[in-house]
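USER:
Before I trust my own judgement here, I would like a peer's view. Write it directly below this note and I will take it from there.

ASSISTANT:
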Amino acid sequence: MAETGLFKPFRTTRLMGGSSQDDDDRTMMKDYLGDQAFRLRNMSEEEKAEMLLQAKTKILADHYGRHREVYAREPSPVGYWDVDMPNSQEAEELGRLAEIRNRQKVEERYREAMRQDGIWKFRDE
C-alpha cells in the first residue's frame, strides 16, 4: 500500500534500529493520556484499541484539521432539537444521556488538564 499524506503522522521510523509499530502506538497513547498513562496497564485489548483510535483521531485533527487552533465546538444539549414535550420515560432517558455526556466531558477535561500542553489547567496551577 502506498503511503499517502494522510498517514504520515503514523509512519514508523526504523532508522538505525528504530521503534516498531507497537512502540509508536504506545507512545501515541501515552502522549494522549498524559499523566494518566499508567491506566494503560489495566486496560483490556478492546479498551486499548479504542484509546489508540481516539489518540490517532486527535493527532489527525490537530495535524490536518482546518481549524486546528480553534477548539472543538460543544454539541447541542441532549434533547435540544426535540420539539415535542417528552413523556416521563423520555425525560428520564434524556436525563440519563445528559449525565453520561457530562461524565465524558469531565473525563476529557481531566485528561487535557493532565497533559503537558493541554487546554484545561487546574485552578492552583
In short: The helical segments are 21-33, 45-64, 88-114. Residues 88-114 form the longest helix (27 residues).
